[in-house]
Amino acid sequence: AQKVTQAQTEISVVEKEDVTLDCVYETRDTTYYLFWYKQPPSGELVFLIRRNSFDEQNEISGRYSWNFQKSTSSFNFTITASQVVDSAVYFCALSEAYSGAGSYQLTFGKGTKLSVIP
Amino acid sequence: DVKVTQSSRYLVKRTGEKVFLECVQDMDHENMFWYRQDPGLGLRLIYFSYDVKMKEKGDIPEGYSVSREKKERFSLILESASTNQTSMYLCASSLSGPYNEQFFGPGTRLTVL
After folding, report:
1. What's the gap in Å between the CA of A98 and the closest CA on chain B?
2. Which one of B49, B71, B99 would you mutate to disrupt binding with A, by most A Cβ within 10 Å of its Cβ?
3. Quick count: other Cβ atoms within 10 Å of Cβ A12?
């Protein structure tokens, strides 16, 4: 069965610090997809990034970067020079390529609450 | 702009009432999902649907049912609300396929008294 672990329940950083959110996953499939979502205080989850299991290239988007390492089953998310607007709950999620049903479920981690203090 | 809307942001109901939570998406997505979100437990899948009139149980379907009569609309029904169903309910939709991201609605915070 697939599983996603976000060991950090809450993190607080001072503005402009860098912060890394950890995500470790378990799956038996060789083809799978990893996602990060952001849930700001307003409540609506926002998709940030998707990575497939065959693409281990790191990704950078502005202050955000993602490090995918199959060897350690990790897909970590780093925010550089954090800002107050980054305060949110961040979820890592996993989707396997082969599902018994006609749809594809996302398995979410429990989330990491990031507080950026001015 | 893609959009998932939910009928209410906040809802207060009494124990034993029948509760309907409505979700509508305007993206012609095949898949629709209902989750509940509780502190410390993350998002847990209640039900999902991959086509009109098709539904599959998620991880915690007990006490809930769903209806999908039209592609754009997915309803979550609490047949007899109980206090342990007080939670944030999130609806999502996606295109078919494991690589497609889910788009979420703003959530409904349901309180059962």
Report:
1. 8
2. B99
3. 12
Shortest Cα distance, chain A CAs vs residue B17, angstroms: 26
For residue range A18-46, list pLDDT tens digits in order: 999 999 999 988 889 999 999 999 889 99
Amino acid letter for position A26: E
Q: Which tens digits make up the pLDDT trace of B15-32?
A: 999 999 999 999 999 999
Predicted confidence at residue B98, as pLDDT, reads 80
Measured in degrees and rounded to the nearest 5, phi and psi for residue A70 equal -65, -30
- Residue with structure tokens 């009109």? B52
Measured in angstroms, the CA of B106 and the nearest CA of chain A are apart by: 4
Question: Residue A110 is which amino acid?
Answer: K
Contact criterion met (CB < 8 Å) for A44 and B105: yes
Please give the structure tokens belonging to residue A98: 């082969």
Query: pLDDT band at residue A81, thresholds of 50, 70 and 90?
Result: very high
Q: Which residues of B touch A97 (CB under 8 A)?
A: 98
Taking contacts as CB-CB distances below 8 angstroms, the residues of chain B near A101 are: 48, 50, 56
Distance linking the first and last C-alpha atoms of chain A: 41
Given the structure tokens 């997809």, which residue do they identify?
A: A33
**The residue type at B56:** E
With an 8 Å Cβ cutoff, are A43 and B48 in contact?
no
Between chains, do A46 and B104 touch, taking CB under 8 Å as contact? yes
Run of H or E including A115 = strand A112-117
Please give the structure tokens belonging to residue B3: 């959009």
Rounded Cα–Cα distance for residues B93 and A12 (Å): 32
